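Colleagues,

Please find the record for the two-part complex below.
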Amino acid sequence: MTTRVRVFSSSVGTKLLIGITGLALFLYLVLHIGGNLMVFLGRDVFNQYSHMLLSNPLIPVIEIGLVLIFLLHVYKTITMFLGNRKARPIPYEQKKYAGAPSRKTLASSTMILSGLWLLVFVIIHVSTFKYGTEYEAPGTGIRDLYRLELENFSNPLTVGFYVLSMLVVGSHLRHGVASAFQSLGATHPRWTPRLLVAGKVAAAVIAGLFMAIAVWAYATGARS
Amino acid sequence: MRLNLKIWRQAGPGAAGRLEDYTASDVSSDMSFLEMLDVVNDSLVRQGKDAIAFDSDCREGICGMCSLVINGVPHGPDRGTTVCQLHLRRFKEGDTITVEPWRARAFPVIKDLVVDRSAFDRIIIAGGYVSVNCGGAPDGNAILIPKEISETAMDSAACIGCGACVAACKNASAHLFMSAKISHLSLLPQGQVERYRRVVAMIEQADADGFGSCSNEGECEAVCPKEISISNIARMTREYVRAMLVAGK
């Protein structure tokens, strides 16, 4: 009747793929912020933690998987966005928010813009950190990512760019987290309202903590 | 009362349209919105002008024919209400009201405020039916259905197919309409025969007709005159996954 490929190009299959890749990326962000918080425990702990990751042979495999998930999420969302635009060639002269129980927000209306911003951000972020200057921590022979972090965030423009980008992350997650569950078909009369709140809280917490690290690194670098 | 109207006029499917100004003077606040349009049309006809084309049938909120976007919201400002059940007391003296047709590639304008919604019919033809045995009428209670299942199915079956969900959705998606039909039939024993074939066929038909996908904003639910919940869309996804995995469709 229908092939698996056609299934994933259908409007519902597309949602499934975007939802599952989105949730995987969200899970990655949770692990990412968890690891990054170790920066508050000092240079040695943070460098040891990053060394543990860098020396793990499983990490490159996971990284490749993460890149593929990221690219699939980007590809499916962009193609869906373009398809959706075609579905209404003549716009309304006047269009208004329909009111409760609609979940439409500024965040939900700008997912494509926040997503494109994050695509650019991730490229810059990975090139300045993962592929940034390779310092060696004195007396250990392992990479000094702590120093790189303080250096990168010594520029107020970089801090500003990161704070802004984390607002964009928060906006993307504000709609994205709960929306992903709906896309995967997960609804429940009691749990869905709680999930909607939890998604917004998670968005604020994750974005807030990443911002705090950037600002803290700027302040710490300025002191030393 | 007196109302200023900006109404979309379009001579035909391919013609360019535009908003034109009209005045509804001396109309009663107890009139429905469509009765007000009747009064405006009566005056246009008396002047020898072309009446404003708009859809309506039952005028009691159950047929799904009326289909106007009023001040940017399908079916107007009242929740759980069709345009025919919207009354002028909802507006203030001297208000300016914009009236547009549903806008979607799959719902082309036929004339003025009338759109062609046969894309919905094609979705129903693709899978919105059940197989029944020929012969004498079966006993009404021959198949037992738990109360909560029949209530949930009835909530979905309340969909009148007006298309406001498509009109409200920024993607012009038919997911709420389809999911209501799929939920209604898949929840009941009578809908099991075509259960997996149905969900795949209806989604493929909607995609082929040029409806968009779903961004989970829920504008559809907010404008639905029958208040169909977007939990139906989640159920449609589950049915689709089941069709893929269990039934290998």
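Chain A touches chain B through 48 residues (CB under 8 Å).

Comments are welcome before we finalize the supplementary table.
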